[in-house]
Design goal:
By secondary structure, the chain is of the alpha/beta class. It has helices at about 30-45, 65-70, 80-90, 105-110, 140-145, 150-160, 165-170, 180-190, 195-230, 230-245; strands at about 5-10, 10-15, 50-55, 95-100, 100-105, 115-120, 125, 160-165, 175. Strands 1-2-3-4-6-9 form a six-stranded mixed beta sheet, with helices on both faces. The radius of gyration is 17 Å and the shape is globular. The two termini are about 30 Å apart.
């Protein structure tokens, strides 16, 4: 069974994380499939909106640490970099349906989504610093812009998690729903009825003032992230994380 399921419902493409036994932790192959799915949806005029969703109880636990260490994304041609680029450049409405844990990239990717619908169970966190890493996906620029410097700094420095209500107050989440995928699909179908070029142009205008700055920040983040991945403190943090996970 594919770990990223891509299916079409009318004019809406749905990309679903399908690794529920691992809390949908993302591997290199999953990043590649997500990048391909977004790029194909961008090029297909019949697709008017895309929904990101997940199987099981969680959105994603972030990176699969073992896979991450075995295949470190240190180049701009890596599958992780391809996925981040596809997010930044995706021209059509992008909606996320989030439930359970959204860790690391599970939260930062939402900063590129146009609308996020969360379940009451949703829990967000970006524990990069605690793993000896730095923020990614443009989050060091986009998150302070969204929530203010002090709140962003506190969350990045401590890695603390926050719930759906807090995320909605911050502006990371548009609404909270018992059935987030149902609400996301309803919204996507509503959007799909509108003139498609008007939707693309509207999104381009909404993103225009930040696009180049986000792109530059993402490149800088990626370079620092790659260097951090090779550092002794990151290796120690990863080993401690793996040991703690093994003892649970």
């Amino acid at each position: 069974m594919a770990e990223i399921i891509s299916r079409r419902e009318g004019e809406v493409q749905i990309l679903t994380f399908n690794r529920p036994t691992k809390m949908n932790a993302l591997t290199r192959e999953m990043y590649a499939a997500l990048a391909t799915g977004l790029n194909e949806a961008a090029a297909d005029f019949g697709v008017r909106a895309v929904v990101l969703s997940s199987e099981g109880d969680h959105f994603t636990a972030g990176n699969d640490i073992a896979d991450f260490l075995a295949n470190p994304p240190t180049g701009q041609d890596s599958d992780v970099a391809r996925f981040l680029g596809s997010l930044l450049e995706f021209p059509k409405p992008l909606i996320a349906a989030v439930k359970g844990n959204a860790v690391g990239i599970g939260t930062t990717m939402l900063l590129h989504c146009d609308v996020v619908i969360a379940s009451p169970s949703a829990k967000f966190s970006m524990p990069f610093a605690s793993l000896g890493l730095v923020p990614e996906a443009g989050s060091s620029y986009l998150f302070p812009l969204l929530v203010g410097y002090q709140r962003a700094a506190k969350i990045f420095f401590t890695g603390e998690s926050f719930d759906a209500e807090s995320a909605q107050t911050m502006g990371l989440v548009a609404s909270i729903a018992a059935d987030p995928i149902g609400e996301a699909l309803e919204l996507a179908n509503q959007i799909a009825k509108n003139p498609p070029q008007a939707m693309i142009n509207t999104k381009a205008l909404l993103k225009a003032s930040k696009h180049d700055a986000v792109s530059a920040v993402m490149r800088a983040e990626f370079e620092l992230f790659s260097l951090a991945l090779q550092s002794d403190e990151a290796m120690e943090a990863f080993m401690n994380f793996m040991a703690k996970k093994g003892n649970q």
